[in-house]
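Lecture notes, unit on protein representations.

Consider one protein chain, 293 amino acids long.
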Amino acid sequence: MHPNDFAAETTTGPPGDPSHVGVRWLGTAGYELTCGGTTLLIDPYLTRVSLPRFVTGPLLPDVAAVDRVVGHADAVLVGHSHFDHVLDVPYIAKRTGAHVYGSRSTANLMQAAGLPAAQVTELDHGRTTVFEVGPFRVTAIPSAHSPFALGKKVPFPGDIPCTCELPVRGKHYRCGDVFSYRIDVAGRSLYHLGSANLIDEAVPKGGDGDVDLLLLCIAARFAVPDVIRRSLKAVRPRRVMPMHYDNFFRGAERSLQLLPMTRFGRFVDDVVGYDRDLTIATLPLLGRMELGP
């Protein structure tokens, strides 16, 4: 079973139609959401450094790769501060003027990159925070990161310090506090869960089908007992879009390769076992769909 077997159906409206919400998968946990001329990015990571480069030296954004994909951005939401979620954010924010929302670790990284304090909002992991970006109403929700399957520890824990100087090696992109995001826009709602873990009781309670689309990380999920069922039960979406299953050490121009131990078929079985009527949808790398009214 392969992600391409669950290609999303698309709905197309006129360019800039405020009744339609564009959803584009940037790879890994990255998404671009558009509505009525406003663009919201979540965990945009286009550089996709190779594994040897990750291991041997400090990391720099591939600005050509970023520029090919990211044009305009009004805000960037950062779920946590590992390199595959935040490496490209300082460059994107500097070039577009986008406002960055994330943890203290993320805020420290933006400071090190030279972003003005007014362009960064540090979120409080002790509470849920609600803010607006154009037509988007965003709820930042305290969440958790999945541990490594073998060590049972979160990879690269702790914060990026305020004294950091860029560039740094991949292992110095510490996780920091973790957030999931609910986004309400144009009568639609999406929920971004960028790591295969969550704080169940922190997820806002709504009715069944209250969330139209759950963007769900399925990497490293086997270290977290029953995480697929728990995520679906907590969020209660109409449709689920798995993500963060691509091998992000390979360039986007190459054919999609799954991360080791993804077991996509097992993910499908878990969803069907929870609710056989729940729709699974996928996008190709840099693929786009629209949520109509």
